[in-house]
Amino acid sequence: MSSFVAPSDESFNIDALRALIGNQVSDKDSLCKLIGQRIRIARESTGLSGHLMAVRIGHASGTQLSLWEMGIRMPPLWSLILLAAETGVSLDYLAGVSDEMAPDPSVAMRRSAVSQARLAIDAVARLVADASIRLSCEVSAAEHAWRHVRDDFAELVTALKRVRDQNGTLFDEHIRGGARLLAAADRISTSVANLERAATTPARLRTEIQASAGAFVAM
């Protein structure tokens, strides 16, 4: 298994670096000094001391920042990104790639668009989460209510059928509205069965409860 080997000074491609930055850089040390100068210029443009700027990018003291500005040490990329954000200059300027201190306006516009898109996505996510919570509460309340309705309807149907079984044809022939009452009981039985299937769907559950109530009123 191969392991990563850091490039040595001998393998350092100065020609590629010059093509990117220019002839002002001849080696790593000169690049380090160039970056240090630009960090200092950018910091001084903000009016902040080295210590305060260091604290803003997460350092307890200004020692590291001072070493960067003097060109003694090369700052890590993450620190350059933080410095660019704090000083308002472009990352390319700090890295010596560009002489323009001001960030590219198109980059700022893209960042703004991305930021707005993220805010919009977060807003939609919150709406979806809130809607899910409300729907869950509605389903729970509907299920609780329909269980009581189901039990009441089932008891009513059972009682009607028991009356008819105990009175035989007398119920159909001599009790006015008896046949209609039994038909309504059958409809209620069907509605109760439908309620069982619709228990997890609030819209269907509401429809079936209304249908069952209609059958009861029709009695």
Automatic annotation (TrEMBL):
Report the leader peptide range.
none
Which residue intervals define the domain HTH cro/C1-type in the entry? Answer: 39-94
Alphabetical list of PROSITE patterns matching this protein: HTH_CROC1
Tell me where the transmembrane regions lie: none
Superkingdom is Bacteria
Record-level Gene Ontology MF annotations: DNA binding
Q: What is this protein called?
A: Transcriptional regulator with XRE-family HTH domain
What organism does this protein naturally occur in? Sphaerotilus montanus
